[in-house]
Design a protein that fits this description.
Shape: globular
Number of strands: 17
Structural class: alpha+beta
Bound molecules: adenosine-5'-diphosphate, magnesium ion
Distance between the termini: 25 Å
Oligomer: single chain
Helix content: 40-55%
Radius of gyration: 29 Å
Number of helices: 26
Length: about 725
């Protein structure tokens, strides 16, 4: 039993870093495997190119005839790059990506064969959808689902397969994936933001949301990781005593990247370059063997696709380097977890970042408008934002070791806080010209300080303004960014619509000037959004108390957090903006609750098994050794043996106590599971798993970890934290 651990340790010690060639400049290989504009120019007719470009920019439809031409061109391009198959690539609600490969190859009779890929195969496919989660949608409506081409995210070749990004919807049109609602939310925020931009610049036609994610992960030797059944089956360690040295010394953060990890990163980055994923930053993170990778930000839909693709590629590349990538939010107790900061901003087709303080007074009023509306949106919908990042795995991270808490708040820094304070005092109604200029200019003078603020930013804030973007930091490392991005863009869209209505009333009915109207509405927003602003330490008990006073939600667990998704206002919000209808919202809620239950159920089984099949037998074995020792001492020393065997006797008793506790706890936990499995009510079942089953984990772990400290290291079967975390 113990051999696996030592085999793994031995194997891990023999590794050497792979040599990674980089013969060409990155700029030369960037996007080589992407059917991007450059490739399209080469392979498409002018009309087809124009049609695709319009589809990307304006969301217009591509007609059937052109689709045939595009598919043929795509096939030629793909074959020239060595592709043999194609697949519709989509993001079902399992959280993973899905693909079903078909060969281009087709027979045409008489023993002849050709390579074929028609327009209809490009535009639409019918994967066997029955095994993807659908939360009752397809039971109620239609048994089938289909995937449909998303021309806004370019096709790419991975391995020998042409991958076509698609949406996945039921035959009745309900979204069965992450991408569909995201596209709808991006459309909503585009429309709402353009309407606001028109106050400032009539030429603005499109506003796009940008996303730059920062992916944190652990890189663990593959042999060591696979020697741990809990890591293999649940993605995190359910047991394990903290090593004598953890992250206390902070000597890993931003330190030299270990050679094997560096080779992995270079290899990964090369793959990313080919796939057009613009990765730029790499560094060590706080915990040992924890790292981060970040790209240059992109349009949100593309960026979400790139992150999903990246998470796949990370695992694949890791195999070559004998690593396993842990994307779980909290793979190890007691050390930092992993997040995925979602850096978000809005920008116009005229090239303006709406969240960047501008150089002129007018552009600053525009900045203030978007800045304050975003804060107001978070204030109003904080609970929905919390729900957007709720998963069983992220629950372990939120509120622990430098991670943001479950309470949503916005950090804006000292300088902008001052700006808002001043804005709050502006005259009601018409402002004096001096007042206006002062206010608008105020931001200008402060830009350098705002940027300075960032270096000293507050890591525990779930939602922070960092100079020219908001950073949603509560997102989990494993998450598909589409979910939080859908919610964020939806709530901002809704807020902008409400804002416009209020401003227009002042202009039309109170005959106010545009500027005055905007200032007046913003002033009221500042007053009503104060409760969401928070600059302090996010995981202090004082903040918990204070937040409660302010009426902010503090939903610590996923079942609690998800409820708001099916509240009347939430459903109305998604419906009004055309992001999700009631059926879709309800289905998603059910899928997420079910996923939660399954997650805890699996962890519960695994911890029960490990405790009983690994830990207890090892404890008994060690206890027998001690008993043998004591018996031996008795033979030699007779009645005097206790003088020499006291320690051993104490340990023998301690071991028995821990074994008894483990057995009793595991039995109770199994009983609790059995009871809960009889329930049909999803809410009750999820909350039972959360509040009855899950608490057993800590208790069982406590006894197992105590045994780990007591038992001879030679006998201990589970690869230890120090081996997992400090093998480079
Ligand atoms: P940090 O200090 O958080 O590490 P970085 O400057 O490294 O900040 O940026 C982190 C991420 O934010 C990167 O992916 C970057 O491309 C992205 N980012 C920068 N500016 C914007 C923006 N205006 N909108 C969205 N994302 C942005
Ligand atoms: Mg960041």
């Amino acid at each position: 039993m113990t051999t696996l651990r030592f085999h793994a340790v031995k194997a891990s010690l023999k590794r050497t870093p792979l040599h990674i060639e980089e013969t060409k400049r990155r700029s030369e290989v960037f996007g080589a495997n992407v059917f991007n504009e450059a490739a399209m120019r080469q392979y498409l007719t002018k009309d087809a190119l124009k049609s695709i470009m319009e589809a990307i920019e304006k969301g217009s439809k591509i007609d059937r005839f052109l689709a045939d031409h595009i598919s043929t061109a795509m096939k030629e391009w793909a074959i020239s790059k060595g592709a043999t198959h194609y697949t519709h690539w989509f993001q079902p609600l399992t959280g993973a990506t899905a693909e079903k490969h078909d060969a281009f190859f087709e027979t045409i009779g008489d023993g002849l064969a050709i390579e074929k890929f028609g327009g209809s195969q490009l535009v639409q496919q019918e994967p066997d959808a029955s095994s993807f989660p659908h939360g009752g949608i397809r039971n109620t409506f239609e048994a089938r689902g289909y995937t449909a081409w998303d021309p806004t995210s370019p096709a790419f070749i991975y391995g020998t397969t042409l991958c076509i990004p698609t949406v996945f919807v039921s035959y009745t049109g309900e979204a069965l994936d992450y991408k569909t609602p995201l596209l709808r939310a991006l459309h909503a925020v585009d429309k709402a933001a353009v309407a606001i931009c028109k106050y400032f610049d009539k030429n603005v036609r499109k506003v796009s949301a940008s996303l730059g994610w920062e992916q944190e992960y652990f890189l663990i030797d593959n042999a060591l990781a696979t020697s741990r059944p809990d890591l293999v089956l649940t993605g995190r360690t359910l047991l394990g005593h903290s090593p004598a040295k953890g992250q206390q010394l902070d000597d890993h953060y931003f330190g030299t990247i270990p050679a094997r990890a560096m080779a992995y990163m270079r290899d990964l980055e090369n793959e990313c370059m080919l796939l057009g994923i613009p990765v730029k930053t790499r560094h060590n993170e706080v915990a040992p063997n924890q790292f981060e990778l970040a790209p240059i930000y992109e349009e949100a839909n593309l960026s979400v696709d790139h992150n999903s693709l990246l998470m796949d590629v990370m695992q694949k590349v890791a195999k070559r380097h004998d690593f396993k990538v842990l994307l779980h939010e909290k793979p190890f107790a007691g050390v930092n977890g992993s997040g995925k900061h979602n850096n978000w901003s809005l920008s116009t087709d005229t090239g303006i970042n709406l969240l960047s303080p501008g150089k002129t007074p007018m552009s600053n009023l525009q900045f203030l408008t978007f800045f304050i509306n975003t804060i107001k949106a978070v204030q109003t919908y904080e609970e929905l934002l919390r729900a957007a990042i709720a998963t069983a795995s992220n629950d372990h991270r939120l509120g622990a070791n430098e991670a943001p808490p479950a309470i949503m708040s916005v950090f804006i820094g000292a300088q902008l806080t001052k700006v808002l304070e001043e804005l709050e005092t502006v005259t009601r109604g018409k402002l004096s010209p001096q007042e206006k200029t002062d206010l608008k200019l105020n931001v200008v003078g402060k830009i350098p300080e705002i940027l300075l603020d960032n270096t000293d930013r507050n890591r525990t804030s779930p939602f922070a303004f960092t100079g020219n973007k908001f950073e949603f930091r509560a997102v989990g490392s494993k998450a598909n960014c589409a979910n939080p991005m859908t919610v964020l863009n939806t709530i901002v869209a809704k807020q902008l619509i409400d804002f416009k209505e209020e401003v227009d009333v002042l202009i039309d009915e109170k005959s106010m000037k545009k500027d005055d109207a905007i200032f007046n509405v913003l002033r009221e927003y500042i007053k009503t959004s104060k409760d969401i602003l928070f600059e302090g330490n996010g995981y202090s008990t004082e903040w918990e108390k204070e937040a409660k006073k302010r009426g902010l939600s503090n939903n610590k667990t996923t079942p609690e957090a998800l409820k708001v998704k099916v509240s009347k206002p939430a459903i109305a919000l998604f419906e009004t903006l055309g992001v999700m209808n009631q059926v879709e919202a309800q289905a998603r809620y059910e899928i997420e609750m079910e996923a939660y239950i399954l997650h805890i159920q699996i962890e519960s089984r695994v911890i029960g098994d490990i405790a009983r099949n690994h830990v207890v037998p090892t404890a008994v074995r060690y206890q027998n050794i001690l008993i043998e020792n004591v018996t031996g001492l008795k033979t030699i020393y007779g009645a005097k043996f206790k003088d020499f065997a006291q320690e051993q006797l104490t340990i023998i008793e301690e071991i028995s106590k821990h074994i008894a506790a483990i057995n009793s706890l595991v039995t109770k936990m199994i009983e609790a599971r059995k009871d809960l499995n009889k329930l049909t009510d999803l809410d009750k079942k999820a909350s039972g798993y959360c509040n009855v089953v899950k608490p057993f984990f800590e208790q069982i772990r406590y006894h197992c970890d105590k045994l780990e400290l007591m038992i001879d290291d030679e006998l201990w079967p589970l690869t230890k934290y120090r081996e997992l975390l400090f093998t480079k």
